[in-house]
Amino acid sequence: MSEVPATAPTQDDALSPPTFDVLPLSAETRATLARMGYVHPTPVQRAVFEPASHGKDLVVQARTGTGKTAAFGLPIIEHLIRRSQSAVQTLCLCPTRELALQVAGELERLGEGRQIKPVAIYGGAPMGRQIESLRAGAQVVVGTPGRVLDHIRRKTLSTATIRSLVLDEADEMLSMGFERELNAILDALPRDRQTLLFSATVPPDIERIARDRLRHPEFITLSSDAVGALSISHFVYFLLEDKLGALLRILETENPESAILFCNTKAETESLAAALQKSGYDADWLNGDLPQNEREAPSASSSPPTSPPAASTSPTSPTSSTTTSPRTPRTTSTAPDAPDAQAAPAPPSASSTPRTSGTSTSSASPTRSSPSSAPSPPPGS
């Protein structure tokens, strides 16, 4: 295994960052990127494109939000998919259904000019519809480990034509308990496949997968194992009682456009949403008891692409969330699912600054971010 550290940005890059002209892309893909408003490739996109396009196995350490989807999406679209072949050629595994949908949507947009057909398969959605999409000639499958393995065992997803595998947020997949499913999927894939492994951290379990399952992989390091959201301010509020009152004061003071609040139980998501509604907020709850189509509705309405959540609280384990907009308040609360239900994991913990007022619980360290501190997302994030 060889390690290829990412090239540090130069002063010239800071003054005039490179455009996508530095990558040998087709005219169709360049036109697509222009329509999407993507002008400058991120460091991970520049570092990954050439070795991935040449069929090398890679272990890429990069934080979430650095443009990883386009980093593996562009080589897939340009070089790894044979457009004349209407069969699954690339499999991308994601830890959650939400990420699978996001990645599939991004790949569909990136591949529009070259008519690449991705499909998302995940738990909680009808099997029949997914089988129809696979039979219709999907070339890229993006899915969660449990549902992908289910399709493989049902023989509704053939692995014979898969030439490349992407493991997105591999450390999250392992931390959520998907190692058994992941190993079963790897055993079912052709041995001569290419594997692109993306992970925010590289713990021993990831090193073992790279050693045992990849072929002479190159390591590309663009971040350290300290993966806290560096662009977000973190605060802890210590509180003995009246958490709801303190929460309402924080929302009123911060005045975010929207917010996501994580709770410890499914019941708390419903009671918190009801309390917020009673206080005049447009609140909704979201947890594993909702059908998949109803789960997607609150998050879509509360967090449109042009207005990302301005405040969020995240506990040390995945639990529930609420999104709010104080002036036209909107809140959604969600609770945890078991791993086989493909629940979204809690964001990685980060160091926090103690406060003497506000909200906190013994089991969670809430975080708070303001729109002014959140940068615009990179292309393909």
Per CATH, what is the topology of the largest domain? Rossmann fold
User: Which architecture name of the largest domain does CATH use?
Assistant: 3-Layer(aba) Sandwich
- Beta-strand portion reads 5-15%
Poorly predicted spans: 302-320, 325-331, 336-376
Strands, total number: 14
The CATH fourth-level homologous superfamily of the largest domain: P-loop containing nucleotide triphosphate hydrolases
Number of contiguous helices: 13
Cα radius of gyration in angstroms: 21 Å
The helix fraction, in percent, is 25-40%
**Largest sheet, order of strands side by side?**
1-8-2-7-6-3-5-4
CATH class term of the largest domain: Alpha Beta
Instruction: Characterize the biggest β-sheet.
Output: 8 strands, parallel
Provide the domain count: 2
Supply the helix-strand structural class.
Answer: alpha/beta
Mean pLDDT: 79
Judging from the principal axes of the Cα atoms, what is the shape? globular
Q: What is the string of helix and strand elements?
A: EHHHEHEHEHEHEHHEHEEHEHEHEEE
Cα end-to-end separation: 27 Å
Give me a quick take on this structure.
This protein has 381 residues and is of the alpha/beta class.
What does it look like?
Helix 3 runs parallel beside helix 4 and helix 7 (145-154) crosses helix 9 (179-188). This protein has 2 domains: 2-221, 3-Layer(aba) Sandwich (Rossmann fold); 235-373. The chain starts with a strand and ends in a 26-residue tail after the last strand. It is 35% helix and 14% strand. The longest helix is centred in the first third of the chain and has 14 residues, at 97-110. Residues 302-320, 325-331 and 336-376 have low confidence and may be disordered. The chain is built from 13 helices and 14 strands. Strand 4 (118-121), helix 6 (127-135) and strand 5 form a beta-alpha-beta unit.
